[in-house]
Amino acid sequence: MPRLPLLAALLSLLAGCATTPPSPAPAPAPQPQAASEPAGMAASQPAAEVASEPQATTASEPVEVAVPTPPPSSAPRRLSEAEGRALLERLLPPKMPDRAGWTDDILDAFTALKIPYSAEYFCASAAVIEQESSWQGDPGVPGLPAIVWKAIDERASRYHVPLTVVKAALLKPSPTGASYKQRIDTLSTERQMNDLFEDMAREASNLGLPLNMRNPIRTGGPMQVSVEFAENHVRAWPYPYAKRGSVRQQVFTRRGGTYFGIANLLHYPAPYSEMIYRFADYNAGRYASRNVAFQQAVERLTGKQLSLDGDLLRYQNGRPVGTSDSQAALYTLGERLKLSREAMLRDLQQEKMSGFGNSETYKRVFALADAAAGKPLPRAALPQIRLKSPKITRKLTTEWFAERVNGRYQTCLARRP
Questions:
Q1: Quick one: pLDDT band at residue 173, thresholds 50, 70, 90?
Q2: How many CB atoms lie under 10 A from the CB of residue 377?
Q3: Which has more confidence, 166 or 205?
Q4: How far apart are CA 263 and CA 67, in angstroms?
Q5: CA torsion sign, 371 to 373 to 379 to 385?
Q6: From 359's CA, which of 2, 7, 56, 212 has a CA 20 to 30 Å away?
């Protein structure tokens, strides 16, 4: 087989390999545990999420930014930066790598995002960092070369290309001077893997590859934050640090990954009284916990069993398509809600934003459901999403993730003055 067509084929194989679970993680993501816990979810095994298919099944989430209000239990006045630093230093684990550096990065992110300094918000951020990376700025991935080669081999076999032929083709020097094969063989961290794919994407035209080839790695850094989220966030809120390279590259630094992770966790108006629902949203997508409670209310009113995943619409390539089970069930309530399908669809299209909670569809569904139950129903519930990855050998869910992070959160709060 000619060299250039082979390289084109195998680089497209690389673009399709998957090594970790969906996100958050987060990869998403999204927690030291048993070796069977998935990369990106076990604190001992973080890893960047890699897209296994070119199209998304969930929404391409818009970024809504808002400074959260101080928690009810926080000090009666806003703390100064010096007071915030003293509080954060008290809350962080006594034994952790580069404690001073982490303190600076977390405090700088809070200051830039204008998030109130509080034990609750500091501990929420620390709990996610500890769960996702165990305080590693550039998380390592055990056995990463074997994972990548296995994925390449599986994809190459579909084209009847032996792995030995693929490895020979990857002996071509890369921009670092090392061959692509050498770089795969020595991969140990997320950032190295991201840099490898970035170089492959940049060299696509020289290798006879499609010009629109994209880096398939979607999450990274110490909080396993989505690259897409980071790119959208900088359009809504100015990035506070000197930027060397792309936003994607910032995600894979400790400082940038911490900043964007904290933004994803806290920098939006979540309607929750308990932090565990923010943790679930971090893994399943913003407002997933609110939307699951809405799905439960629709279930109660219709008797139809729904997928309690927080997605009220069905998506392809980040856009709504077809009719979801939640949507179909809701439409059967049209007469009781006194709403047209068009009106309900307009409201459902806000499902990834705070505005859905103020929509007529949301308010009328809960008014009916509360009346039927004879009491106010919960306005938040944990999504029931199964986390899937080649590394997962037991049932793990978004609920598991949220509870694991919440346990770390409570441990952190116990250290507050």
A1: confident
A2: 16
A3: 166
A4: 10
A5: negative
A6: 56
Beta-strand (E) ranges in 173-276?
219-220, 225-226
What count of residues does the chain have?
417
Query: How far is the C-alpha of 51 from the C-alpha of 114, rounded, in Å?
Result: 32
pLDDT of residue 373: 97
Other beta carbons within 10 Å of 346 = 14
Helix crossing, 341-348 with 360-373: angle to 10°?
100
Residue 394: predicted pLDDT: 64
Q: Which of 50-54, 119-123, 273-277 has the lowest mean pLDDT?
A: 50-54
Return the residue matching tokens 């391409």.
60
Instruction: Count Cα atoms within 13 angstroms, Cβ side, for 371.
Output: 9
- Residues 398 and 325 sit within 8 Å (Cβ to Cβ): no
Beta-carbon contacts of 229 under 8 Å, excluding residues fewer than 6 positions away, are 61, 63, 260, 263, 264
Which residues, including other chains, have CB under 8 Å from residue 164's CB and lie 6 or more apart? none
> What SS3 state is found at 94?
coil
For residues 141 and 163, give the distance between their C-alpha atoms in angstroms, rounded to a whole number: 22
If residue 133 lies in a helix (H) or strand (E), which one and from where to where?
helix 119-133
In eight-state DSSP terms, residue 262 is H
- Give pLDDT, residue 214: 60
d(CA 233, CA 248): 12
Residue type, 28: P
Q: Which two tokens stand for residue 159?
A: 């084209």
Kindly report which listed range (193-202, 204-213, 288-297) carries the lowest average pLDDT score.
204-213
For the stretch 412-416, contacts whose Cβ atoms lie closer than 8 Å and that sit 24 or more positions apart, written own/partner, are: 412/91, 412/93, 412/119, 412/122, 412/123, 412/126, 412/127, 413/91, 413/119, 413/120, 413/123, 415/90, 415/91, 416/87, 416/90, 416/91, 416/119, 416/123
Contact between 190 and 224 under an 8 Å Cβ cutoff? The reply is: no
